[in-house]
Amino acid sequence: MIKKLLTLLLLSAAVILINVSALADNVYYQNISSETLSKNLTYEKQQLVTDAGFLDVYVLRVPLADANITVSPVNSVQEFGLKQPTADLLSEAGAVAGINGDFFGMSGRYSIPLGFEAANGQITSAGSAQNVQKEENATFLIDNAGNPFIEYLKTSVAFLYNGIENMLVGNFNKTADAVYPTIITADAVKKVNENGEKTTAEIDARIPNTFKIKVSQGKITYISEKGQTVAIPQDGYVVLMNEQTAKDYLSKFAVGQTAEIKIQTSVDYSKINSAITGAGKLLSGGVIANDTGFISAGRAPRTALGYNKEKDTLILMVVDGRGHSIGASHQNMADLMLKAGAYDAMHLDGGGSSTIVTNGNVMNAPSDGAARSVINALGVFVNAQAGQVSSLKVETDAASVIHGTPVNVYVTGFDEYMNKVPLDFTKISLFAESNAGIFDGEKFFPNIVGEITLYASYAAESGTISGQTTIVSERLAVMTASKSKIQTEIAVPVTISYKGTGGEGYSVAIDASSLSYEVFPTELGFVENGVFTAQTLGQGYIKATHNDAGNITECITTVYVNLVEKPLDGLTGYYKARFMSYPETVKGHASYDGGISGATLSYSFEKSASTQATYFVFDDGIVIPEKTQMLRLGIYGDNSQNWLRGRVTDSAGTEYAIDFVRNINFDGLKYADAKISLPATAVYPVKLTRIYVTSISQDAPITSELTFTDLKAIVETDLGLPAVQTPPPVQNIDLMNVEFYYGELPADAKDFTFSGSKGTIIYGEYIANYGQNNKIPTISSNELFIVQPNTVAGGLFSGGAWQWGQIEQLVSSGVPESAAAVVIQTETSPLHFADKQEGEMLHKIFANIVKSGKKIFVISNEAAGTAIVLKDGVRYINLQKFDDPLINPTVMIRIQNGTIKYQVKTD
Fold this sequence. Notes:
The chain is mainly β. Helices cover 6% and strands 46% of the residues. Strands 11-10-20-8-9-14-15-18-16-17 form a ten-stranded mixed sheet. It has a nine-stranded antiparallel sheet with strand order 1-22-21-25-23-24-4-3-2, with helices on one face. Strands 49, 51, 52, 54, 57 and 59 form a six-stranded antiparallel sheet that branches. It is globular.
C-alpha cells in the first residue's frame, strides 16, 4: 500500500577518499577460528595482537547471491518501539545470525531508530530529519535483484488532504514525543485488542493526550478526542499529534476529505528490498572514506557492514573495546574491513551497543558488561527447506574423560544449509581408531591413554557421509569435590559433585555414580550417587574413591552435622507490623491471617521498567539467635517471577539484605532458606525487620499476595568436639616429583637444573635476560630447547609487543627435532598475567603444541610459593622468589632416550 503513496525524489552524495595503509596497526600475531552457519554463511573470530594492543574482531560473511539466505532489519515483535538486546531481537525474528543496527535514544524502555529502515520491500521506518544539514548518516540498501549499495539518504514525510501538501510529518512508523505529527500503520503495532484490532493503546500509554486522524482507503474517516485510543485500519493509518500541534492543524481536517502520505527519498524505492541506517561511510571503492558522515573519534567498540567488489558477499563486523580489546578508530575499522574483503562499507551504532550474535548466542564481549537493549538489528535469515543429509556433526558430552569411563557420542545430520535432518540410526556406524576402545551403543569406553579420534559414518541415499571428533583419555590424577566442607542438618540431602584432573592436566568430568563412598564415623550418615544424608548430630568426613584397575584416587570432604531448627515467633500476630512500599504509589496491605497461621503481604505492581517493592515491616523486629546460619520460611507462592528478600538489622542499626527466593516461580507451599552471613563487626542481638517483594522490571500490571508461615532459625550448635582430623587423600601423581631418582647419572641421561632467586631464573651459568634487540633469546641443546620471553612487567605484551610476533614460531617450528622438551623460562607465569585473556591466548599456543607431541615446561619466578600446575598438558612450575639470593628453589629435568622426568625441590 505504501509504495503506491510514494512520490520519489532522486538526490546524490559525494565522498572524499584517502589511503589507509599508513594508518593501520601492525599485527604481530593472529588466532582465527571459524564456523560454518549455513551454505557459504560463515562466522569468524579473530584474536589480534597489534603494536597498539589486543583486538578481538568478529566477522560474519553472508552470500548475497543465494536466494535462500536473506538480510533484513528486525525490530521487537513484542511491542512497538520496545528496546531489547540484539540477541533477543534476532532470536524472536528467527534470524540465524546478525549484528546491532541503527542509533537510538538511550533513555527509557522505548525508542526509535534515528534513520531510514525498510524490510521485504516496504518502508518500516522513516523521518524528515535525516541528513538535512549535511550528509551524516549513511544507509545500507539491498535492491530487489540482491545488489547492495550505500547512500546518504535524504527523506521527508508529508501529509496531504484534498490534494494539498500542508503538514510536514516528523516520523513514519516511529514515535518520539509527537511534537511533530507522526504516521503509524497497523503493520508497526504488535499487539491486538480483544476484538483482534491493532490500536494506538501501546503508544497512548507512553505519549498521553494525543489527537489522532484516522485514514482508511485514502479518506479521513475519524478525528479523535484528546487521549482517545483508536483502532488502526489495515487499509490505512493514523496521524498522531500532541496538543500544541493539534491546535495548529486539527481545525483544517474534516471527515470525508481525501488523504495521502507523501514520502520523498533519494532512491527509487520501488526497487529496494531492505535498508538500515547507521553512521558515516568507512570505505568507498576500496579506499577509506573521509567524508562528512558522523563518526565517533578515537578507539571504541565498533559495528560495521560492507560488501566486496563483486557485491556478492556482505561482511558484518564487530570489534570489542574498552576492555582487553582496545577497540578501533575509524581508520582501524577501515583497515580491518579492507582485510576482510570489503570494497564499500559504513559504520553502524557502536560503543556499548556493539553486539554480534550467532544461533541466539552473543559471541563478543559488550563493553557495558552485558548486552545493551537496542532498537533494531540487522538479521541474517536462512529460508531453505530441509534437504538431504550432506554432513555429520559428531559430539561427545565431554572433551576429556577418565580412562575406562564411558563417554556418550551424539551424531547430528545437516543438509547443505545446516538445517538439521532426522537420521535413521540403524544406518549410523560408530568406530574408533584401532585398539583405542570399544562402543556399546552410543557409549564409548576408552582403553588407551591419550588423544583418540572417534568416527561416525552414515549410509545416505547419495552415498556414505562421515564425521569425526577427538577426545582425550586420561588416568585420573587428582580429584576435587564441589564442597570441601559440609555443614548440614539431620535428614537434609546435600549434593556433592566431583571433577578431576588427568595425568596430563586435562579437566575430566566424574560421574558420581562411578565412585565408592565411605563415611567416618559410619553412623554419621550415608552417600548415594554423590548425595549425603546425615542421620545423627556429629562430625567426621566423607572419602570418595575412584578405582581405575587398581589406580586409586581419593577425595576428602569434612562434615559437620551441627545445624538444628529453632522455631521463631513473629508470624502469629503478636508483633507490630505494617505495610510499606517503594515508590509510595505502589499499593498493598500487610496483615496477619487469623492471628495464628501466618502473615500475608498483598500488593499491586504497575507496568514499569523501574524497581518496585512492597514490605511487610516488623516494627519491633524478630530476634534471631546468635550462630544462626539460615532463616527458613514457608512461602505460599504466587508464580509472579518476582524476588523475595528480607532485611536483618543489628543493634547498631546496620542493615543487611538476605535472599529467600530469587524467582518466585511456584504456586503453593514451598520452604526457602536465606543465608545469614554477617561480618564480625555486626552487633548482637540481630533482628529480622522486613520481608519484602521486589520487581526489577514489570512487563505487565500485577495484583497478588504472598502468605508466609513457619519461620525458623537454622542454628549452629556446639558439639563439644575437637576439629575433624582427615587422612591425606591418595592421588595418582605427585606433581612435584615425577618418577625422579637421585644417585649416579645414567650414561645415556642428561640433567638440566633451573634455580630461582630474587628477580631471575638461572639455568646453569645462563641467567635469563628476557630479550634484547627485539629478539627473544633461546638456548639450545640436543635434548632441550629454552625460550626466554620477557614477562617481567606482568605480561608478554608489556614486556615488548614484538614478542608476540616470535613466540609461536619459536616454540613450534623453531625447536630442534632432537629436543624432547621445551622450557619457557620467564618471570611471570601466563597463569598470572595482568591481562588474563592474554595469558589464556599464550596458554592455548602452548597447549596446541603439546598436542603435536612436544613437552612444555613453563618455569616462572614469582613471589607466590613454589608450586606446579598441570593444565592441558603444559606444566607450569613457579620457583618462589626470595629476598635472600642464597635460597634457591630448583627444578631438575632429566631426559633419557626421549623420556622426561623431573623433580621440584624447595630446599
